[in-house]
C-alpha cells in the first residue's frame, strides 16, 4: 500500500453506445461493473485516497451499492463535470495535498488489476509517468467519409492506449488546469500531459483490459473473469 498514491476512477460516462442501460450498473460475477475497479485497487492505497467520480444522477446509487458491498469503506465520491476533463479535475481536487502520484482509471475497464496499476506506478516513479497500453497488431488504414482508403499506417510504433494512467500529481493537475484554460479537448489523460509539454511513458499490458462499450462486450468480460488464471 502506498500512502503517497491517489486513484481517480471515472464513472461519469453517458453509456450512449451501450444502449438504454447504464453499463456501469451491469454486473460481472454479481458485482456492478463500476465497483470492480474500487475492489481491485483497494489495497494499493488508503480508501480515502480513492475517488469515484460519477454523474449527479447516480451518486447516491453508487454510494449505497458500495456501502453494501464494502460496509467499512472510506472511499470518496464526487460529482462529475460536463466533460471527462472536468470530471478528472474534480476528482483530483478531492485528493489530499500530500499525494505525490495520481492514477486515473475508467470504471468501464473492470478487468484492470492491481498488478497493472503497480506497474504503472513503478514507471511513474522512474520516468514521471506510466500509461497502460497495448501494441497494435492489426493493419491500420485511414479512410475518407465514404470509406475509401487513403493510406496504410506503419503500425510498428503504434499503441492502443488504456487505463490506468499514472502521473506525478502536480503534473497531471497542472496539465488539466492548462487544457481547461486553453479550451483544449483531450480524449485521455496522457493527451493533457502532452499539451502541457510533459513526457509520457507507456507500460505494455498483455492482459485483458478492454473498455466495455457495447452490450456484446459484457458476456466476453464475464467469460474472462470466470476463466481460471494461470499461475
Would you mind describing this structure in some detail?
This protein is of the alpha/beta class and 231 residues long. The protein has one domain (5-129, 163-201, 208-226): Spore Coat Polysaccharide Biosynthesis Protein SpsA, Chain A (Alpha-Beta Complex), CATH 3.90.550.10. Helices cover 32% and strands 24% of the residues. The longest helix has 14 residues, at 114-127. The chain is globular, with a radius of gyration of 18 Å.
Which terms would index this structure?
alpha/beta; Spore Coat Polysaccharide Biosynthesis Protein SpsA, Chain A; two-stranded antiparallel ribbon; globular
Model regions low in confidence, pLDDT < 50 over at least 5 residues = none
Number of domains: 1
Give the N-to-C terminal Cα separation: 23 Å
Could you say what the CATH architecture is?
Alpha-Beta Complex
The proportion of residues forming helix, as a percent range, comes to 25-40%
Number of β-strand runs: 11
Topology:
Elements: E1 5-11, E2 27-28, E3 31-32, H1 33-41, E4 50-54, H2 59-69, E5 76-79, H3 84-93, E6 101-106, H4 114-127, E7 129-135, E8 140-143, E9 149-153, E10 159-168, H5 169-182, H6 189-195, E11 202-204, H7 217-226
Parallel strand pairs: 1-4, 1-6, 4-5, 7-11
Antiparallel strand pairs: 2-3, 6-10, 7-10, 8-9
Amino acid at each position: 500500500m502506498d500512502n503517497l498514491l491517489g486513484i481517480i476512477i471515472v464513472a461519469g460516462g453517458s453509456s450512449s453506445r451501450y444502449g438504454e442501460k447504464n453499463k456501469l450498473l451491469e454486473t460481472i460475477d454479481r458485482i456492478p461493473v463500476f465497483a470492480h475497479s474500487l475492489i481491485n485497487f483497494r489495497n494499493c492505497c488508503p480508501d480515502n485516497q480513492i475517488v469515484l467520480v460519477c454523474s449527479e444522477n447516480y451518486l447516491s446509487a453508487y454510494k449505497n451499492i458500495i456501502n453494501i458491498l464494502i460496509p467499512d469503506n472510506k472511499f470518496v465520491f464526487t460529482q462529475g463535470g460536463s466533460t471527462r476533463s472536468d470530471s478528472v479535475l474534480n476528482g483530483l481536487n478531492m485528493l489530499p495535498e500530500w499525494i505525490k502520484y495520481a492514477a486515473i482509471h475508467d470504471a468501464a475497464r473492470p478487468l484492470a488489476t492491481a498488478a497493472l496499476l503497480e506497474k504503472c506506478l513503478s514507471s511513474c516513479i522512474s520516468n514521471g509517468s506510466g500509461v497502460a497500453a497495448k501494441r497494435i497488431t492489426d493493419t491500420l488504414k485511414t479512410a475518407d467519409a465514404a470509406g475509401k482508403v487513403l493510406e496504410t499506417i506503419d503500425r510498428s510504433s503504434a499503441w492502443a492506449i488504456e487505463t490506468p494512467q499514472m502521473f506525478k500529481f502536480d503534473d497531471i493537475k497542472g496539465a488539466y488546469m492548462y487544457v481547461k484554460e486553453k479550451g483544449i479537448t483531450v480524449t485521455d489523460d496522457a493527451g493533457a500531459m502532452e499539451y502541457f509539454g510533459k513526457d509520457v511513458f507507456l507500460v505494455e499490458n498483455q492482459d485483458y483490459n478492454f473498455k466495455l462499450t457495447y452490450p456484446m462486450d459484457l458476456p466476453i468480460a464475464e467469460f474472462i473473469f470466470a476463466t481460471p488464471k494461470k499461475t
